[in-house]
Amino acid sequence: MKVLIVSDATSVHTQRWVEALKGKGLDIVLYSIVPYSGDFYALLGVRCHCFDLFNYKREKKGLLYPVRRHLQAVKDLKRVLELEKPQLLHSHYVTSYSLIAALSGFHPHIESVWGSDVYLYPKKSPLHTAMVKFTLGKADKILSTSHVMAKETSRYTSKEMEITPFGVDTSLFRKLEVEELQAENTPHRRKFTVGSVKTLQNKYGNEYIIRAFAIVAANNPDIECSLELVGKGPDREKLENLSAELGIAEKVHFRGFVPNNLLPKEFAKYDVACYMSNSESFGVSALEAMACECPVVASDADGFTEVIEDGVSGIIVPRRNPEAAAAALQKFIDNPQMKEKMGKAARERVCKLYEWDTNVNQMVEIYRKFS
Hints:
The chain is of the alpha/beta class. It contains 17 helices and 13 strands.
């Protein structure tokens, strides 16, 4: 079965779906509306067609130029559809990606919602709302990674949706026994490490993680506390300055980008993972930590409240509330046994509900219903 996927070729989420579906024996072709120069897809034997749709953000040729570029993208996608002749079209992200797929007129057409495309985009203006409703209205099937995001999407369509979690490879994400970390501990000083794996930008609430950590470090002077922030993003300098202002710069380590397959080694160093997003449609990184038996303190953003069982596999706190997050982190210092107990419960939850291979098989079955 040949499936043409319309998605961002640079996204690790796209890469995971393409690699997994290809591994299931499907003939996958990718169409990206952002340029891609890597060899990831070529090494998989997947053809990747690219169109630089968003060049209008650089060239600024007038108000109508974005419309023109979208129409050109539709024409280019039609060319690729004629060339590849897929049996199914699957677009990811309801805005430009699914919009041009809908305008191509190709059926059957599956649309996957991702998050900001239904949480933020339609709220920009009545026109944006209308575009989302139009695009969803053209889908033969709509998929959502979470129930909470499906509920949000239902504000713009009456169509039924199927839940297709973006789960975790539990054979990769598992508890690691890192002996060299044990050797770093001094006999007279206890260590407590908080970690987070997120893009460094405002919506992911990294500021509140740093503020919460500052409170914990101040309240526990006899413990060697450290905060590990994995990820890159536009707010790094701002966050570094905040750490300096709070007097904890030497305790906060900005690790930059770490490849996905190396993240289990990062989670092995943490006593707790902390996520304080202002909004979250699913919470994949939290699931990856949980699969490694690392308990999670997270904000009450929708995606986290769905994947984390509060008080069992992690602790949910109000968003934008560093004091509450600090109190939750303190519980793991005061009760060291909580890490192992919650960590085991966290992995059990991931294995039961969010096993990646099961999620991929579900997607394959959805595809085959259209063959």
